[in-house]
Amino acid sequence: MCGWSQMVTLFCYIHSVIANCIHLLVQDLEALCEPALTAMNKVNWSVVEAVGDQSSYVTAVTSHIKQVLPNIRDNLASARKYFTQFCIKFVNSFIPQFVNHLYRCKPISTVGAEQLLLDTHSLKTVLLDLPSIGSQVARKAPASFTKIVVKGMTKAEMILKVVMSPADPIQAFVDNYLKLLDDTDTSNFQKVLEMKGLKRSDQNMMLELFKTRLPSQTTTGRGQHGATAVREETSRIKRLEKLIKKKL
Questions:
Q1: Could you tell me if 29 and 64 are in contact, meaning their C-beta atoms sit under 8 angstroms apart?
Q2: Distances in Å between the alpha carbon of 190 and those of 158, 161, 177, 184?
Q3: Which positions ≥6 away from 166 have C-beta within 8 Å?
Q4: How far is CA 23 from CA 16, 30, 57, 220, 234, in A?
Q5: The whole model's pTM is what?
Q6: Would you place residue 242 in the very low, low, confident or very high pLDDT band (cuts 50, 70, 90)?
Q7: Whole-angstrom Cα distance, residue 63 to residue 227?
Q8: Measured between alpha carbons, how far is residue 81 from residues 58, 61, 84, 124 in Å?
Q9: What is the structure's pLDDT at 231?
């Protein structure tokens, strides 16, 4: 029993060390990309006159990824699952950071939003190719990884599409926001209004309308509880039916 306990302890320790190492690798790459995201916030997106190639901050992020990824992959060649874990942890951390920096870009003109949308799509393409960047062997990225990237970067794209949409009529703007983002967080809606550079009075009016569009917490909670109860009852009945069949 003592030997088995020691083995479990050792296994947990090794697992912890590996997790910490992956976390440090993710932090290092994030630190390299952070100045580029900060540079994105320093651009005056309200005076952009035309959409061009991808912005310099995207080129910088892409360059850092292409320099770092091959080395990490080569060193984890004999333990590919850890490289996959690194990729998943990186996008899980980088994409929310990118979205947060995107919220700080304000105000944004329609053309500025179009340029940011192009930049976001370029970053999305790079991130989707993350597991195979610099590799001579073309490998399909794990479905779980692809799902994370698509979901996170699609949110960024939808934020920009809302910013590009006209603020008037306000009912249509609010409904379009809820349709594209399905986000009932009032603070996030406020951030989008600030990205559009709307007057404070107009923002307050939209916020009030936004709040009337939100489902009642009481109703939502009751509905979720009711659905859970139904699932539990259905599961209980199925288990009972199996038991009866066995006895018969």
A1: yes
A2: 15, 16, 11, 11
A3: 172, 173
A4: 10, 10, 24, 37, 42
A5: 0.80
A6: low
A7: 48
A8: 28, 24, 5, 22
A9: 53
Distances, alpha carbon 112 to alpha carbons 42, 48, 95, 108, 230, in Å: 13, 5, 20, 6, 49
Q: Which amino acid is at 216?
A: S
Pair 176, 160: CB distance under 8 Å: no
